[in-house]
């Protein structure tokens, strides 16, 4: 179905965009304004100048290879991207299934030194993402956010609330993708949900940046782009997949890129007095994150620190933590002890990978 809707969009974009569940029209901005609707890079042709989108405010339509100040713009997917000036926004209606959970992944680049913010919304939900930390060296980051569809046709918008003096400041957006999420359930083999991180946000096939999952503003683990887990920190964690990274088990894993400011947690149902074993893999993503890495796991008053010597080429070891539950709800939390930078560019944050997290109760304590 994805392929079909893609073809439809290609053949008929000048007439109308077809609505297929979760598909986004002109998602990579490859269809641009007509020449008479632009002045230089600035879109002047009114709210419908960019096919598929409704735009407002100062919007620039940018081509890969173009000069941005003293830098050359490189666009990760396709050849075009849009920049949102102060107060500018782009939006479109998307068809979704009412009641379902979706994650939305988008590529964004920060342009100026000031802190930039982006308000991402799917009515009535919204989030304002701060982009003061540059996570990847090339300036582009993929972010994921998630929402539950309240209606079957919803407004998706990206709004730059900034008030910078330079109108050329403001985030550049390249591509946007939606993916339905299927919140996993605990099984009799694992009290934790989504312990292997197999359920996660959409990952763009041609990008090697992973997907940043910003801190959960509210404690809604159902609602997370990483179902079951809460990003409980100031900084994002990175979702990585086995197509682009070394992953201990299965397809997905999490890289803790923000040191102690980058933590994920899950609250498990436990039986007080019972003994449990928490087991997990600690490794590296094969992304030149070299040196002494370390993951700390916390369960109630118990904790374990797992050192991992990384050569940056992939690999992992296993660790366990045994504890007696004292409550019906037990919080499991992982964080990285150190800040680390990749040895190949010294500008990208990196860190240890965790995967295959299981929590089982022991029959004979
Ligand atoms: C973010 O955008 C939504 C939708 O346009 C809006 O309702 C909300 O008030 C905005 N939030 C902020 C803080 O600007
Ligand atoms: C990925 O990159 C290849 C080679 O550059 C290109 O042919 C392909 O169309 C790209 N795919 C997407 C989804 O951008």
Automatic annotation (TrEMBL):
Outline the extent of the DUF642 domain. Answer: 23-179, 191-359
The UniProt keywords, alphabetically, are: Cell wall, Glycoprotein, Secreted, Signal
Give the InterPro entries listed for this entry: DGR2-like_dom, Galactose-bd-like_sf, Pectin_Meth_Modulator
Query: In its keyword annotation, does this UniProt entry include Lipid metabolism?
Result: no
Location (main, coarse) = secreted
For biological process, the GO terms are: regulation of cell wall pectin metabolic process
Subcellular location per the Swiss-Prot or TrEMBL entry: Secreted, Cell wall
Which branch of life, at top level? Answer: Eukaryota
Q: Where is the signal peptide?
A: 1-18
Per its UniProt record, what Pfam families does this chain match? DUF642 (PF04862)
What's the protein here called? DUF642 domain-containing protein
Q: What organism is the protein native to?
A: Glycine max (Soybean)
What's the gene? LOC100801917
């Amino acid at each position: 179905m994805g392929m079909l809707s893609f073809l439809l969009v290609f053949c008929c974009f000048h007439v109308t965009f077809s609505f297929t569940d979760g598909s986004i029209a002109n998602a990579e901005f490859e269809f641009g304004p007509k020449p008479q609707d632009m002045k230089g890079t600035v879109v002047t042709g009114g709210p419908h100048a960019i096919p598929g989108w409704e735009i407002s405010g100062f919007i620039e339509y940018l081509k890969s290879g173009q000069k941005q100040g003293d830098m050359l713009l490189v666009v990760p997917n396709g050849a075009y991207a849009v920049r949102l000036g102060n107060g500018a926004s782009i939006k479109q209606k998307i068809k979704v299934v009412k009641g379902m959970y979706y994650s939305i992944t988008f590529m964004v680049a920060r342009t100026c030194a000031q802190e930039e913010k982006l308000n991402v919304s799917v009515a009535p939900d919204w989030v304002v993402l701060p982009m003061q930390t540059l996570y990847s060296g090339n300036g582009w980051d993929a972010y994921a956010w998630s929402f539950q569809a309240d209606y079957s046709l919803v407004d998706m918008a990206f709004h730059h609330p900034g008030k910078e003096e330079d109108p050329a400041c403001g985030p550049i957006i390249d591509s946007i993708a939606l993916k339905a999420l299927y919140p996993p359930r605990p099984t009799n083999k694992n009290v934790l949900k989504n312990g292997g991180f197999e359920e996660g946000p959409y990952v763009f096939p041609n990008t090697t940046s992973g997907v940043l999952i910003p801190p959960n503003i509210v404690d809604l683990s159902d609602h997370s782009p990483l179902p079951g887990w809460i990003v409980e920190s100031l900084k994002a964690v990175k979702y990585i997949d086995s197509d682009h990274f070394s992953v201990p088990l299965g397809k997905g894993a999490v890289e803790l890129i923000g040191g102690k400011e980058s933590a994920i947690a899950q609250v498990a149902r436990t039986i007080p007095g019972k003994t449990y074993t928490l087991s997990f893999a600690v490794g590296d993503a094969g992304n030149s994150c070299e040196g002494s890495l370390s993951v700390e796991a916390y369960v109630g008053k118990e904790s374990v620190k797992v050192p991992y010597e990384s050569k940056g080429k992939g690999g992992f070891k296993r660790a366990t933590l045994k504890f007696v539950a004292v409550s019906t709800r037990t919080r499991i939390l992982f964080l990285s002890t150190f800040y680390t930078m990749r040895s190949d560019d010294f500008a990208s944050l990196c860190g240890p990978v965790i995967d295959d997290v299981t929590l089982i109760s022991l029959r004979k304590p």
